[in-house]
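Limitations
The structure tokens in this dataset are predictions for the assembled complex, not deposited experimental models. Users should treat interface geometry with appropriate caution, especially where small molecules or nucleic acid strands are included. An illustrative entry is reproduced here so readers can see what is and is not provided.
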Amino acid sequence: MSPKLEKYTFLIKPMFFIFSLLFASWLVLKIEKLRPSDFGKERYLFEDEPVPSIAKYDEQYLKNLFLEYKFGIINSRQLDEKLEFFLKPIQKAGVKKN
Amino acid sequence: MKQFYFHKFEDRKPYSAIPDNKYRTLLFQFTGIITVTLGIAYLHWRWRYSLNTEALWFALPLVLAESLSFFSTVMIVINFWSNKDAKKAPPVHYLSEIEDLDGRTERPVKIDVFIATYNEDVELVRQSIQDAKNMEYPFFDVSIKIYVLDDGRRDGRDATKENMKIVAEEEGVEYKIREHNEGYKAGNLKNALEHTKGDLFVILDADTRVFPNFLINTSGYFRREKVAWVQTPQWFYDTTEAQKLSTIIISKLNIENKHLSRFVNIMFGRIKMNEDIFGNDPRLFYDAILRKRNFYNAAFCCGAGSIHRREATMSLAIKDFADGLKKLETDLISKKINSVEINDQKNILLLKQEIIPFKFHASEDIYTSIMLHADKENNWESIQHADIECKMLSTQDLDSWIKQHQRYAAGSLDIAFKDNPVLIKGLSLGQKICYFSTIWSYFAPLWIMVFLLSPIVFFFTLSLPVKTYSFDFLKYFLPFQLMNTITITLGCWGISTKRGDQYYISSFWFMLMALFSVLKGKEVKFNVTPKGKHFAKNTQHILPHIIIISLTVLGIMYNSVLVFKGYHPCVSGFFTNFFWCIFNIVSLSIMIRAAQWKPLESD
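Predicted assembly:
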């Protein structure tokens, strides 16, 4: 250490204690803001969420949708709306992945 | 040669002192600050938001106990804050190396070794004498005299007693007695100081066996003229050995069948237990607590295994003597008594009053240390030496253990009520905190009692001390506990705290009794710790432990039924208290095991 800096070495300890105190205070503030809903907000920390597979998870939903259309429970406009609503997050995830 | 139970431990080697590490100290300070901050946040939440207002009778004692316990944590962080081992120096030769000659002629230093005894086996004392005689010193002209200070007056006058005087004569050491036991051990040492001339003196108990390098490694510290005493760690080399669980089972169940014994060995042979069953190993105290007090110049004397500067001890006695005279004079002047009568009274006092170097008290060592540290005219320093320089015997049964620890507790509490170090002028802030920390630890049974009873109260009243054991409780409590554990681990680095923690909890009842006895104003008696094994039934000592464990188990069973039937009003409360109870039961059970402990026949 240069002689110029050496006369300031006495500051290292107080600075260390101030840093420790600030860190501890920051930690307390962070803990105070924690809510149960914060857990699970980020399901995947190191990679993108995998694209949900239609065939695997939502086959039944689609089947039901088409059966409702076939038996006239919903009309073509409603089918379009429901399909759009269903496909939106899948398309979004696909774009993100690309 | 008479055979003692501890002869089989003669080959045991002492532990090495934990090397100082500045990065570990910095890490401890960092985690210590975080622990204290998290603790404050937790208690803030507890007091402001968590109290169950519908059961304040339960909520308030618990939160108060938690706050008092947290105060102990703060004290520990301050106590362990830093480490400052004293610089070692070569052994002293001449008087001028340790004090100003002030016109006196130069001469080699004189060292006295005091072995205080009362009723211990004379053959046990003989071993201590022999080890003291084996002490080495590089300068042949330095006089080292050994004195047996026998407060039991075993000089042959009473034929029913062993003859200590003959043993002293056979070993070629000095033998000193007095005709009364006034002042207990402190009085015994006072008597010795009146009849000896050593510049330095070593205090040993009847069972303290010094290593050959004791004086070589400790006398050099006195080159610093302000050093009043050096305390070395007390190492108990006869603590109980770990036993295989299989051996215990075979012995207790008296299993004689070979195949069955082999099966038990295969099943439980790897599990070991009962190591240091009485929690006697004082390493945590000497290597961590007391050693770190060097930083504040607040390491106190613990009696045996210490070396003292006569000048310091005597200066305190003379100061007390002068203060007594001054007080008398002031009192007489205030009563408007004429000067002739004042002089007469002073002369009477001069003739009557004794010079008392060690405070006449059951905890004479800590009391004298406080007074020496408070002497601002001389600014005396103390040193806790890191390495082990002698070995001692520990208590070998629960009854002796309890008596010894109750004396420590009652002695320290008595000082707190009569001459509180916080109020004594002359002590630095660090010294006040350290002494107060020692005394504060003896108030622990007050909050430990609450911690032990709280789950039981919950189980049988189904009232919660907190509004709910919710996410908020966990988010404040868990980080604090986690950081607390990390901080304590760093502070006690390399030292096992398991037994210490268990005994801290399980000794609550005896410490509580000691506290009540001091509060009642009972005189604290100096019970000589028995040196040997006395396997009496100690059931009366563990009755409170059995009651608390039984109630806890009953409570768990009752609440389990409620949970399974779906009637329990607070399942999260049940699980929280369940885990809390496991900790309580494990801690309390050590005392029950200690009360039942006996060496196995195979030992």
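Some entries come with short summary sentences. For this one: The longest strand of chain B covers residues 110-117.
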